[in-house]
Design a protein that fits this description.
Elements (H helix, E strand, L loop, with lengths): L1 E8 L3 H21 L1 E10 L2 E4 L6 H9 L16 H7 L4 E4 L12 H10 L3 E3 L3 H6 L1 H11 L3 E2 L10 H8 L5 E7 L2 H12 L3 H10 L8 H4 L2 H15 L8 E3 L7 H9 L2 E11 L5 E11 L11 E8 L4 E7 L4 H15 L1
Bound molecules: NADP nicotinamide-adenine-dinucleotide phosphate.
């Protein structure tokens, strides 16, 4: 039986669900994999708790589900924030699930991940920010320390897009990557094609809780661009960066175009694309594109995301996920953990 002392940073939509998931899966993990995850520390925006003998996964989830803070727990460490927890806790694994915060240097995620790797912890994160900003540095650190850095949840929710890209395309030359890794943009374009005015479409998305506080992150294509960079690096090793992505958001397409496309059997999606050119470089773009029904990503519904790879030896490979809640995204952390420890 293997026991893994675990720290969790960020107990929001994903972190909370992950706690419930471990609670429910504990017998399965023990019986099938001989693995026990012991939560020794957790942090949110208001504080951190640390208990070397273990915190209860369900208690941590319950505090956050009722809008409380980890600073209320008996094991709370006054004055500690997420980074202090990572610096001081004795653990083998960091789960980093705080917000992306790309505009402010991907903090606190980036510092927490760096510190954990330096301290010899394995890291699993669905947070795009640190991975897109410091892909090489974090991989180098992980290699130096002989630990794993896994981030399958960063692209297209619960779809194992990174696993496919990094593991299952090995040996191939990847000619093209196409992906629809963001749900909100497709939803908004569908509402516009229904005839709703732009502001009403945004209000509808906001009311359903799918639009972030900063809608520009999704609608201007930043989220999709960040995912494209991570996917391209994982599939090809090409040193893609955000500033290489030619980016257009939802506003680049007019409502009349969306309606006309629908009438002719096309569906607009914000498509992330990486294409290998003759010089051996990848051309990266994010733009609203009308997809024909015959295209593997052309029939994606409101809750569906997908990815497609064209390769020299594995053919044309595509995968789609329907994600009704953030549970599959949270579950990617479990998949990554099992890959590391079993
Ligand atoms: N939601 C999804 O479907 C999804 C899918 C794939 C990937 N992701 C990624 O997963 C990560 C988490 O997403 P989420 O939806 O769970 O976000 P969320 O609901 O906004 O939760 C974020 C959590 O991080 C905490 N936090 C914020 N600032 C912090 C700080 N400075 N120090 C420590 N904790 C801090 C928040 O604390 P409070 O609770 O105190 O506010 C909250 O618990 C993000 O990077 C996101 O891009 C999300």
């Amino acid at each position: 039986m293997q026991e893994v002392r675990t720290i969790l940073i960020g107990v929001g939509q994903l972190g909370r669900r992950f706690c419930r998931l471990v609670e429910a899966k504990t017998p399965h993990l023990r019986e099938r994999y001989g693995l026990t995850l012991r939560l020794v520390g957790a942090a949110d925006s208001r504080g951190a708790a640390y208990a070397p003998n273990g915190l209860d996964w369900g208690t941590v989830a319950a505090v956050k589900e009722r809008g409380g803070s980890l600073a209320e727990l008996e094991a709370a460490r006054p004055g500690w924030d997420a980074l202090a927890l990572v610096e001081q806790a004795e653990a083998e694994l960091l789960l980093e699930a705080s917000p992306v915060n790309l505009k402010s240097g991907a903090e606190p995620g980036l510092s927490c991940i760096r510190t954990a790797l330096r301290r010899g912890m394995h890291v699993v994160t669905p947070n795009k920010g640190p991975i897109v900003l410091a892909f090489d540095e974090l991989h180098r650190l992980a290699a130096e320390q002989g630990v794993a850095l896994r981030f399958d949840g960063t692209v297209a929710g619960g779809l194992p897009a990174i696993n496919l890209a990094a593991r299952d395309l090995r040996g191939a030359t990847v000619f093209t990557i196409e992906a629809v890794p963001n749900l909100v943009t497709g939803y908004v374009m569908d509402l516009l094609a229904d005839g709703l005015p732009y502001e009403t479409a945004l209000d509808r998305a906001r009311a359903e809780g799918v639009l972030e506080a900063d809608p520009g992150w999704d609608l201007e294509g930043w989220d999709t661009a960040a995912k494209l960079v991570i996917l391209t690096r994982s599939a090809t090793g090409y040193p893609a960066t955000l500033d290489m992505v030619r980016r257009a958001g939802v506003e680049a397409v007019r409502a009349e175009e969306l309606r006309a496309a629908r009438k002719s059997g096309y569906r607009y999606r914000l498509l992330a694309r990486a294409r290998l050119d003759e010089a051996g470089d990848y051309r990266l773009s994010v733009a609203p594109v009308p997809l024909a029904a015959e295209h593997p990503l052309g029939r994606l519904g409101r809750k569906e995301m997908g990815v497609l790879f064209e390769t020299d030896i594995y053919g044309r490979l595509s995968a789609i996920i329907e994600e009704q809640s953030p549970l599959p995204s949270a579950a990617t952390m479990l998949r990554d953990i099992l890959d590391i420890f079993t």
